[in-house]
Amino acid sequence: xxxxxxxxxxxxxxxxxxNPYRGSDNRYPLLERKYGHKxxxxxxxxxxxxxxxxxYGYVSSWEELTQQQYDAYKAxxxxxxxxxxxxxxxxxxDGSGRVERYHLVTTIPNEMGIVREDNTFEYTxxxxxxxxxxxxxxxxxxxxxxxxxxxxxxxITHNKGWQLNKDNVKGMHPVFKGLRIxxxxxxxxxxxxxxxxxxxxxxKDGKEFLKKYQDFYMVCETMxxxxxxESFIELAVELITNKAHLAFDSYYIPQPDINKLIDxxxxxxxxxxxxxxxxxxxxxxxxxxxxxxxxxxxKGHYYYTELDLNSFFQSxxxxxxxxxxxxxxxVLKQVEHKQGEYYPSSEWGIYITVNDLPVEQYN
Length: 363
What we know:
Elements: H1 8-17, E1 27-29, E2 38-44, E3 50-65, H2 67-75, E4 83-91, E5 98-116, E6 120-123, H3 130-140, E7 143-147, E8 152-158, E9 169-174, E10 180-182, E11 194-201, H4 203-209, H5 214-225, H6 229-243, H7 255-267, H8 273-283, H9 289-296, H10 309-327, E12 332-337, E13 350-354, E14 357-359
Antiparallel strand pairs: 1-2, 2-3, 3-5, 4-5, 5-6, 6-10, 7-8, 8-9, 11-12, 11-13, 13-14
Helix pairs in contact: 5-10, 6-8, 7-8
């Protein structure tokens, strides 16, 4: 890891050796002066200690106004240079008439975090998007990225390569609001000494729990092995149309229809296993089955290779098992991970606490 561009000694040197931007006495360039959207502000915290607010780009807030407030702002000779008024109108979908809406839009620099005198950096932003993560990776000289499989935003130092696995990762932290790290070591400050745990399926409990579904899977696999893809598609269309009473009008299957199909699938597991599998498969959209059905009913016009029923069955089985585990948390166990080290992905939940209180990882 190279020296961070946020190192407090470097920032202090900029303040000593560089003039602030014109019109300000505390706004300094963080990198080259021509990149004015990458700057820092010298400020004081609530205790009177000097801090350095790291800024990247700008964010806008929208305050809705009444027509009277809008007219009052419009009557002012000048608005602040970072504010503007907007008004727009639209027709209500229920036919009740036309609506006028008014807003005051205020644009301010986007704060990434705070550098303190002890050479720590504290995350303070409401959110970090792709551009923000690229900027943070640049100035921290490590990688910051979003990984849904690891709970959200993470900070990584690499041993080798860029893949996210135990061999390639030297150090790793979940990033949450208030996380404060030492810039020379990337270790957390004592004020945010966090614990991280994740859920994992207990092999023993999970296997025992799934025993009652063995007959269902065996019957479905046997029937699928002798069925033709076209026959399967026709059966699916018939079930979705006549049993679930759904249409194929939407490009994506609506969530209420997904819930309905899952409920019907559970109800039919014993009496009509193959019907149940079809409804599970459509609900989870295994192998883009929803689009295949739309094409078959002339609702869509997309080309797909022939459906592989063995692959469909195996994929559906995994998705069904996953849904069963989510609905029955008794088969899950919590695993605690060592702070600052690589932790594996988890589709069952990752939890972070600071001083025994839960904190929310950035998305």
